[in-house]
């Protein structure tokens, strides 16, 4: 059959939209969403990417009811750790580990002895191998939970010393004081908003001091006439020092010179360092605590630790993330500029429209405040942004300067063809 005959044999859009099986498969989708799916499949068939007899099955597959109401999207925003898009995408190995752990596992069983084993020991060992300066590790369900556990176990009924310049608010209006107070501890502010010295902590120390909390300003910057006591200075105080490192950098990274990393904080004397697992580390949502064995054991044995512990799926994904290869988040942060431009130009050629323009990406997720990630994006009309979000697959780009910028920084190379197809469809609708 010639190409002309093959195109003539393609089913009509309205015929597919009236197909009883297609209608059933489209449950829960708007008519416009169904129309976009059908048009996208037909476009691929006209381009020779699908055989005529594969069109209907492909439409049914694309419209099949998902197992979850969560919709996978392509992140073309250029924001690497995008909170609204679920923060860190898992590596292939982490996904494999998660799926493998979905059945029965030895998460709390020693197969050699048949007796109860240490829960999630593989992930804990991987953490200690990644940060050799830590004596012990503990994993809970997010960084806020990690801080709540530390404050409860070490300072319940007592005071937590915090610099006024570190009284942070995180997403959705959650603030540090209510979190500490919910642990049954009292916050005692020390120093000034812009300058806090070691002597401010020393003057506030007393019999009611439970711990000193140092919060790294991951999601904001204070500049000008500023100063703060370092971890090394605070480590000399006669109470536990808990450092909230925030974004989950394990070791120094030249790209993020102002981001506090766990290895350095521990080397400087912190008793406990806590951070998120789904930010710069690039793993599943988790709150990770590293530090002195004696202090971590107090936290592990506290009754609250049971309520905050993670499941086997998180432990499996975390271990796989730590053991490599490099997960998507650090890969996107350190994306090769030439490869970024080459891929963007290839998508532009496949789309047949738009313009490759300079742009600036961001770290996101409350990390790397002020750090710019220079790159390029495919610029298309602003109206394409809404069409891309409602397409199949949904593509989340960003609007800037009256244009829709499609940035491939956080798009996996194997998704470039799908991205190009989605952009083509959005342009056709216009």
TrEMBL record:
Catalytic reaction(s) noted: L-seryl-tRNA(Sec) + selenophosphate + H(+) = L-selenocysteinyl-tRNA(Sec) + phosphate
Query: Gene3D superfamilies, from UniProt?
Result: 3.90.1150.180, Type I PLP-dependent aspartate aminotransferase-like (Major domain)
The chain positions of domain L-seryl-tRNA selenium transferase N-terminal read: 7-46
Q: Which UniProt keywords apply?
A: Cytoplasm, Protein biosynthesis, Pyridoxal phosphate, Selenium, Transferase
Q: Which Pfam families match?
A: Se-cys_synth_N (PF12390), SelA (PF03841)
Pathway field: Aminoacyl-tRNA biosynthesis; selenocysteinyl-tRNA(Sec) biosynthesis; selenocysteinyl-tRNA(Sec) from L-seryl-tRNA(Sec) (bacterial route): step 1/1
Q: Where in the cell is it found?
A: Cytoplasm
* Keyword Cell inner membrane annotated: no
Which EC number(s) does the record attach to this protein? 2.9.1.1
Listed InterPro entries: PyrdxlP-dep_Trfase, PyrdxlP-dep_Trfase_major, SelA-like, SelA_trans, SelA_trans_N_dom
Where does the record locate the signal sequence feature?
none
GO MF terms, alphabetically ordered: L-seryl-tRNA(Sec) selenium transferase activity
Question: Residues bearing N6-(pyridoxal phosphate)lysine?
Answer: 279
Q: Cofactor(s) for this protein?
A: pyridoxal 5'-phosphate
Task of the protein: Converts seryl-tRNA(Sec) to selenocysteinyl-tRNA(Sec) required for selenoprotein biosynthesis.
**Family to which the UniProt record says this protein belongs:** Belongs to the SelA family.
> Which NCBIfam families does the record match to this protein?
selA (TIGR00474)
Name this polypeptide is given:
L-seryl-tRNA(Sec) selenium transferase
Q: Which organism is it from?
A: Phycicoccus sonneratiae
């Amino acid at each position: 059959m010639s190409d002309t005959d093959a195109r003539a044999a393609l089913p009509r859009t309205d015929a597919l939209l009236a197909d009883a099986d297609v209608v059933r498969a489209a449950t829960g989708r708007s008519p416009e969403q169904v129309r976009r799916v059908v048009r996208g499949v037909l476009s691929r068939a006209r381009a020779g990417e699908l055989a005529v007899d594969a069109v209907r099955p492909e439409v049914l597959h694309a419209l099949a009811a998902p197992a979850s109401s969560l919709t996978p999207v392509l992140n073309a925003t250029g924001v690497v750790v995008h909170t609204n898009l679920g923060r860190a995408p898992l590596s292939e190995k982490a996904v494999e580990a998660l799926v493998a752990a979905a059945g029965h596992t030895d998460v709390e069983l020693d197969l050699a002895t048949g007796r109860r084993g240490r829960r999630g020991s593989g992930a804990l060992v991987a953490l200690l191998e990644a940060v050799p300066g830590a004596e012990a590790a503990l994993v809970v369900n997010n960084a806020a939970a990690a801080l709540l556990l530390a404050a409860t176990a070490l300072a319940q009924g007592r005071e937590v010393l915090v610099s006024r310049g570190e009284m942070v608010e995180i997403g959705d209006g959650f603030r540090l004081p209510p979190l500490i107070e919910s642990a049954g501890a009292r916050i005692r502010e020390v120093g000034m908003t812009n300058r806090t010295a070691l002597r401010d902590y020393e003057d506030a120390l007393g019999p009611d001091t439970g711990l000193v909390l140092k919060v790294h300003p991951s999601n904001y910057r204070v500049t000008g006439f500023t100063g703060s006591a370092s971890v090394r200075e605070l480590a000399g105080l006669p109470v536990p020092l808990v450092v909230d490192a925030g974004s989950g950098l394990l070791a120094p990274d030249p790209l993020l010179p102002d981001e506090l990393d766990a290895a350095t904080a521990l080397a400087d004397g912190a008793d406990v360092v806590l951070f998120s697992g789904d930010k710069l580390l690039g793993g599943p949502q988790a709150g990770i605590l590293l530090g002195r064995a004696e202090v971590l054991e107090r936290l592990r044995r506290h009754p609250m630790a049971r309520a905050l512990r993670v499941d086997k799926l998180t432990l499996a994904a975390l271990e796989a993330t730590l053991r490599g290869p490099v997960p998507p988040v650090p890969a996107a942060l350190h994306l090769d500029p030439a490869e970024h431009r080459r891929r963007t130009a290839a998508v532009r050629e496949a789309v047949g429209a738009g313009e490759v323009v300079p742009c600036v990406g961001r770290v996101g997720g409350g990390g790397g405040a002020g750090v710019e990630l220079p790159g390029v994006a495919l610029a298309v009309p602003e109206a394409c942004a809404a069409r891309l979000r409602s397409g199949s697959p949904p593509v989340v780009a960003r609007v800037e300067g009256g244009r829709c910028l499609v940035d491939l920084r956080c798009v996996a190379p194997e998704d470039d063809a799908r991205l190009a197809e989605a952009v083509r469809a959005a342009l056709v609708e216009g």
